[in-house]
Amino acid sequence: MAGPDVPLCGIREVDAGHLDLHRRIDTFGRLWKLGADDAALLDSLKEVREAARGHFEVEVAVLSGYGVPARHHRQIHDAILEKLDAMLDEMAEKSNHQRWFAVLDDVEQIFLDHEVMEDRAFYALLTPPPEDGRLAG
Description:
Blueprint: H1 12-33, H2 38-65, H3 71-93, H4 97-123
């Protein structure tokens, strides 16, 4: 999924986070295709979740640095993290190869939808970048 399918906004920190997140999702997908065991898939999904958490912090800092109210966007991020936590809990409890595929599909869709719909909604507000290039906070 990393590459041309990843929507970019032109802000280095945000774009790097999106690319890193998609690389991790790609790794998760490759592990599933290779038939990795549940523990490896669970670890990979945890890495996706942690990458998302870190990226979301950067995104909110960037929004704040541009003076864009970020409360709503933070709530969207929190809902995504809650979905990932629920997936992690479910898969730690009981999983199988087919269910992992459904989780992979859900994860890909969650992030694609978020980047295409919610993130793109604020991209126009982020140009040009602040003169000093620093993030808020």
